[in-house]
Amino acid sequence: MLYVQDLTVSISGSQILRGVTFTVPPNSVFCLMGRNGVGKTTTLKSIIGLQQSDGGSIRLGGDEMTRQKPEHRARGGMGYVPQGRDIFPHLTVEENLDIGLRAQGKSAGRKEKFDRVFTLFPILKDFLPRKGGMLSGGQQQELAIARALLTEPRLLILDEPTEGIQPNIIDQIGETIKMLRCEGQMSILLVEQYLDFCKELADEFAIMDRGAVVASGTVAELTDDVVRKHLTV
User: Fold this and answer.
1) Which helix (H) or strand (E) holds 215?
2) Helix (H) or strand (E) run with residue 93 in it
3) Count of domains for the chain
4) Left if phi > 0, otherwise alpha if psi is -120 to 50, otherwise beta: which for 110?
5) pLDDT in tens, the chain (233 residues)
6) What is the pTM (predicted TM-score) of this model?
7) Residue 53: domain span
8) Helix, coil or strand: residue 113
9) What's the DSSP call for residue 92?
């Protein structure tokens, strides 16, 4: 579903990404891991087009995305939930969700599409008239994921969805990811620090260090030795 090859990025003269290469298979959950500051978020921003890359290739399915603008990548099937969520705090929950529909220019079937995200996150239905900024951090994360799902992505990109979230909502997000994988309609690229969350959900993983991928494989290969070598602080 996603093919990233030799991705390089420099910011203000500093080399941030150094030939990042990995593949996200169709209908799978892929976890991108690493200590703080190794380039994970920059990788995601480069994939979605918010950070210009110096070199390399990004393909979604068979479509070349490397030089496409972010809006073209979104319309091409990328859904992005950034670290910090970035909902619109002064818009209502309903207005935030409508933006997901408008991003794809698809207003038909609004009720059915909303009902689907309410099945995943029932609390949002009760809070439709509430301003996004009045929600808890966990509820804002659910809103951000629901908004991304309304763009009907082929690839859903989640940047640390459990950060600062209460345990019951972490469990709900985990169940949602499992359900989406079982539906077989999208792949999920997940950046996450919570090791147990990754082990429970991911099919494959890659670990980054100093702007490059230093280990990868199936989640069964994410052994204690690999964790100690590349993830333990």
Assistant:
1) strand 212-218
2) helix 93-104
3) 1
4) alpha
5) 899 999 999 999 899 999 999 999 999 999 999 998 999 999 999 999 999 999 999 999 989 999 999 999 998 999 999 988 889 999 999 999 998 888 766 666 788 899 999 999 999 999 999 999 999 999 999 999 999 999 999 999 999 998 888 898 899 999 999 999 988 889 999 998 889 999 999 999 999 999 999 999 999 999 999 999 988 86
6) 0.92
7) 2-230
8) helix
9) B
What are the φ and ψ backbone dihedral angles of 26, each rounded to 5 degrees?
Answer: -60, 145
CA distance 115 to 109: 10
The domain that holds 47 is classified in CATH as 3.40.50.300
d(CA 167, CA 7): 35
DSSP state of 130: S
From residue 150, alpha-carbon distances to 26, 60, 84, 138 in Å are 19, 19, 19, 19
Give the integer Cα–Cα distance in Å for 49 and 71: 8
Amino acid residing at 221: E
Q: Indicate the DSSP class of residue 132.
A: G
